[in-house]
Automatic annotation (TrEMBL):
It catalyses: a lipid A disaccharide + ATP = a lipid IVA + ADP + H(+). This is Tetraacyldisaccharide 4'-kinase. Its EC number is 2.7.1.130. Transfers the gamma-phosphate of ATP to the 4'-position of a tetraacyldisaccharide 1-phosphate intermediate (termed DS-1-P) to form tetraacyldisaccharide 1,4'-bis-phosphate (lipid IVA). Pathway: Glycolipid biosynthesis; lipid IV(A) biosynthesis; lipid IV(A) from (3R)-3-hydroxytetradecanoyl-[acyl-carrier-protein] and UDP-N-acetyl-alpha-D-glucosamine: step 6/6. One of its GO terms (cellular component) is plasma membrane. Keywords: ATP-binding, Kinase, Lipid A biosynthesis, Lipid biosynthesis, Lipid metabolism, Nucleotide-binding, Transferase. GO terms for biological process: lipid A biosynthetic process; lipopolysaccharide core region biosynthetic process. Pfam families: LpxK. The gene is lpxK. Belongs to the LpxK family.
């Protein structure tokens, strides 16, 4: 199969390279705004822990600033710029923007395929976080953060479709901060850290940091009460990489079945009805917060018990203060 994928990767690489060169040479215009902007994105497709990291930034900066999130709204059934409102749904604004909107009352959320067109829709925002905009170079940013899954670091990956990179490794040059995510704290030591930093410096002058995944207390989907996981559960996911979640759940429960859907899958009542018919009445189903925003309204009458596993990143090697110092110095 590789003999087919490699030539296709060469073609895809040529296209993305020329697109980036048009920005580098100012043939394509980048629009800048008065509001400070932090961009969070990645070179690869999905699975880098971008959503938890955006929430990490929201929680830090919303203590002192009015924060807004600007996203494409991938998977939504609408088009054009939309500012999230009281009755917004995941189908209207996308599952990740809906997650931000439902969790953070004081955070403005705007979706727009053309990020530049979305900025004017913010009303009270002092700081914009761009969600998944590393390749969206039409909008300027003060801080460019690139995430990379530590289990498949960008410096070992290849351009689509042979690999999972949206553009060649040299695209990391634009990153002021590189963060390797989902690090296994038990096996990742100082020598691994030094090797990752050394490899990254071949492509970027950006500061390098590392994060692991931290799971919060599970809670009930419909009443938000904290709960304990029972001995046996069902897993239901529509995320790019469910493996970290599987490892976490298996610390406490046996997973008797895993319903694994593609990333950003749009659940329907028929989907839930089919699953419900296959399971014993009252079964416990573990889901992510990303899927919770899509499942909440369509599972109110279900006899299944849905438990949500919240997630946040943890900055490793005692570098959280250094990370925010780096971001703040770029903002200022």
């Amino acid at each position: 199969m590789n003999f087919l994928l490699k030539p296709l990767s060469v073609i895809y690489d040529a296209i993305t390279y020329q697109r980036n060169k048009s920005y580098d040479n100012n043939a394509s215009k980048t629009f800048n705004f008065d509001l400070p902007i932090i961009s969070v994105g990645n070179l690869s497709v999905g699975g880098t822990g971008k959503t938890p990291f955006v929430e990490f930034l929201i929680q830090y900066y919303s203590e002192n600033k009015k924060v807004g999130v600007l996203s494409r709204g991938y998977g939504r059934k609408t088009k054009g710029p939309i500012r999230a409102h009281e009755s917004s749904t995941a189908k209207e604004i996308g599952d990740e923007p809906m997650q931000y909107h439902s969790k953070y009352d004081d955070v403005e959320v705007v979706v727009s395929e053309q990020r530049v067109m979305g900025v004017p829709f913010f009303e009270n925002t002092e700081l914009i976080i761009l969600d998944d905009a590393y390749q969206h170079r039409a909008i300027g940013r003060n801080v460019n953060i690139m995430l990379s899954d530590s289990s498949k670091p960008f410096f070992q990956d290849h351009v689509l479709p042979y690999g999972r990179l949206r553009e060649r490794r040299e695209g990391a040059e634009r990153a002021q901060i590189i963060i390797f995510t989902k690090v296994d704290e038990e096996s990742f030591d100082q020598s691994n850290r030094e090797e990752f930093i050394s490899q990254s410096k071949k492509y970027s002058k950006g500061n390098v940091f590392f994060t692991s995944i931290y799971y919060g207390e599970p809670y009930s989907l419909h009443n938000q009460k904290k709960v304990n996981l029972p001995d046996e559960v069902i897993l239901l996911t529509s995320i790019a990489n469910p493996n970290p979640l599987i490892r976490e759940v298996e610390k406490y429960s046996s997973i008797s079945k895993h319903y694994k859907f593609r990333d950003h899958y749009s659940f329907t009542e028929k989907t839930i009805e089919r699953i419900e018919n296959e399971l014993p009445k009252g079964s416990t189903v573990v889901i992510t917060e990303k899927d919770a925003v899509k499942l909440k309204d369509i599972t109110t009458k279900s006899e299944l018990k849905f438990i949500v596993m919240p997630i946040l990143p943890k900055v490793l090697f005692d570098q959280e203060d250094e990370l925010f110092h780096c971001i703040n110095s770029l903002l200022n």
